[in-house]
Amino acid sequence: MTIVACLLLAALAEPQGSLRGRIVLAETGEPIAGVTVDLSARIQGDRYEQAARSGADGDFRFERLAAGAYSLSARKTGYLPMMGFPFPVTLETNQSRAEVTLRFHRYGVLSGSVTGPDGEPADGAEVVAYRYRWADGRRSRVRVEATSADDRGQYRLFGLPAGNYVVAALAPRQEWPEGELEQTTMVYYPSGAQPSEAGRIQLRWGQELSDLHLVLRPQPAYSITGVLADSQAGGACRTCMIRIERMEQGVEMGVWSRYGTRADGTYRIQGLPPGTYRVLAERGDGAGGHVAAARTVTIGNRNLGDVHLVIGLNRTLRGRLVLESPPEGLDLSKTTPVVALVDGVRTAARARADAQLAFEAGGLAPLVYRLRPGGLPAGGYFKLLRWGGQDLAAPEIEVPDEGTLGPVEVVIGFDGATLSGTVQPTESSGRGHRVTSAVVALYPQENQSPYLVERRVPTDANGAFALTAVVPGSYMAFALPAGSTLDWADPEVRRQLARYGRAVDLGRAKQVTVELSLAPESDAAAQ
Amino acid sequence: MRWLLALVWAAAANAGAVSGIVYLKGKEEPRPLPGARVVAQAAEGSGPLRTAVTDVQGRFRLDDLPRRRIVVRSDKPGYFTRATASRETTLVLDLSGGEDLPGADFEAAPGGVITGRLADPWGEPLDRVLVMLTRLSGPGDRHREHASQAASDDRGVYRLYGLDPGRYRLAILPPVPEGREEHPAPMYHPAVLEVAAGREVRGVDLVVRPDRLFQVRGRVADPPPAESGRLRLMVRWVREEPGAPSFGMPVEPDGSFLLPRLPAGTYMLQAFGSQESHIGRQRLDLSSDRNDVVLRPTPPGQLAGRLLLVGRTKPAEVRLEARDSTRQESYRLVARAPDYRFRVPQVWADTYSLHADAPPGAWVLDPPEVVVAAGETGEVEIRVGTEAGRIDGLAKGSGGAPLAHGRVALARFMPDHIEVRTEQTDQKGRFEIRDVRPGEYRICVWPSQEVSALDVSQTWERAGAAVKRFPVDPGAQIELELTAAR
Q1: Predicted complex ipTM exceeds 0.90
Q2: What is the pLDDT averaged over residues A185-197?
Q3: Backbone angles phi, psi at B11, to 5 degrees
Q4: Which of A69, A521, B324, B395 is the most buried (most CB within 10 A)?
């Protein structure tokens, strides 16, 4: 009798909460089987953990759950969850929840083989998948994934998000006897040694493109030598690194390699095919990635010597903000404008303007910097950069080795345009998407002034938005769903999806209202 | 002028040259292998003297080599290369007469392959898992060295290639799900994998079952007050296999600790204070969750004393290694002339086995082990032999002519195994074996065909009268003439 009572009590005490859910492919809604789902919580100080796997119907379930705040996470090789994990789930006492849907993307794969010119497998060849990234209207190339060809010459680049890729293969490093012609073998898919010959490979989610065959052909390669000196230390810089980036039509193609200097400050970079390169010196003081000097050189058909770099010149740019026709009664007491100097994509210096709106940015190397003023007074925009009474064509300043630098005038205009409107959902925007989570992005049209910048603003709960103090000019406006996997900064992507955008002419002090349709979330949805 | 003379003298002193061709030997006719590296080293010493790379015709030439015995080897990633004349990876050559030796050819064969698939118990592939390959050699496969590694792809497939022929063990480190504090054990493939030259071993699959992991809570009892909040715990896994993980973690200011979840096994927990001071040590046999582990302060001892060198050779420095009972930790004892004293101020109380590290040919006579008690401050005297013997010899073929590139084996028959050292004869049939510890030895030479199983007594019995037996005394210089076994 006592035993029965105990069992009954145990059954009564057992929690009755449950959690059910489903895992589906983001693009098609198809169920995904074999996903490991982990549920954990801290209940009364103890760690509670349980794991489940999704079945053929994509469903998973957890039973006999006590009330509590749970963390849910899920994983499967080759799949990318669309939400961040851990995902919080709260259960009340004996509550059953069944509405959890987890959407996953399936990664893409690029595979194929690499051979030498004689058809022999090029084992050990490095194969790299690159993507282009756009920032500030500048294109740069980033490595997404790299692998090496095996003894059969085969390679497999996996775990790739949907996007446009460039694939290149580089022969394994070889030692060449002293004095012999150096050779390198870098080839872009489908063929060609120059980055401009690279084909754009469009990869969708879940797609596997095999048979991407690359043939390595030796081509002459040259070296760059020079000395890296530290003007402050009065000699070699032992903690410095030399970095070399390939440039293609003035566009940064990503890091080619990194090299240390010898004790006397000399350096030598070998195996470079003809082309334009940017040689950068970085100080290895642990700050990392601080460009201290740079030179752009072009290799024709011979080695380049005497490519000397000097770091530690530490030049200072002075200037002030000039307010052009500010509105009456503008209160400057609560604004502190800051001028950022950007070298490529890195912010090299940040100068705070004082009460007289004067600023001073120190520690500059002889490079080209783009000025990016921020924290401007309400209604103001960066209109123009002036040096010595001249209006500069671009918001950039080239810092010379010596001679005068500045003072510059950063002209702030108050006659910017305003773009406002609402975002409407469209059929192709995916099921159940609320337009409240969209972002409105404004991109300058081609051949506009370099002073025009990209602007973004989220929509409010009603799908409404407003962008003020826009630099006057011609733009394309898009409404982007939150979490879009498309690289909207890429002009090519915008050209392809131009039908979702609206061209807007924003003249001085003009107020324009538009209605925008929500753009697709991914490539697959767009096609 | 003197500088110029020195240059001329150096040119005259270095006169030898070695040249040859590296061939690729596959299923088809041998053909030249370009881009292979060829390195010449001194027979004694480590740094390369000259390096060359084969041209498109597979040719190489190493010029301006010193007048001495040298060792030449060739390599190219993904290939297994050996000298045609010696059938070994090295070619020993005597350039003492300033010889110019052509025909030092090498043969490269594509290396062996091991491939397979990693999956979880439900058959889901495991990607980006590191697969580690260890090569086994020596008597009883006791010598283990890292040979290769690769990562699995999104299908769970891995491929290890360019392997030298030999015996291998394969292990993986199971992946730890993001955000989990766990230290899983490396998982070994059950089989010893035999790889022949250029052969592919397929289907070496592993189903990765998560180990049962245990939780360990504990505390450091009565730590010195000054060290409170500065204690660090070092956790070592006591295991023979290579790749046994160890990790460090801070101890809470109240002395408590919670280890990442660990698989069953034996561990050594060691608490250190600031400046690496030894606080406490505790052995842990883990087979269930534990909440009661207490690390009591264990006063460290010192390992100090002096070496008594036996023999006429007095090296400037003698180095010994003292290995603890877990085989996971060792201390280096450095003793310098003239008094050869050494001192390691803090060591855990334990029994340490002693081994001579340097100079080559030094050996520990007695005691073989030193016991350090907790708080021990005494000194020990260790007798070290430094005067090794040396064997020079000439090997002849059965016809009486010098045996070029033969294989000389020097063996010491121990109670449970045979210790073997091999050397190669040069092109004149001569060989040198240095740093031979005194003892009873057997020696024999074989022609350049492959001789395997030198650590098996039958091989020596078969060689019959070609085997010579002799003692090596301290400092002995022995000159031998050998006739090759058939």
Answers
A1: no
A2: 84
A3: -65, -40
A4: B395
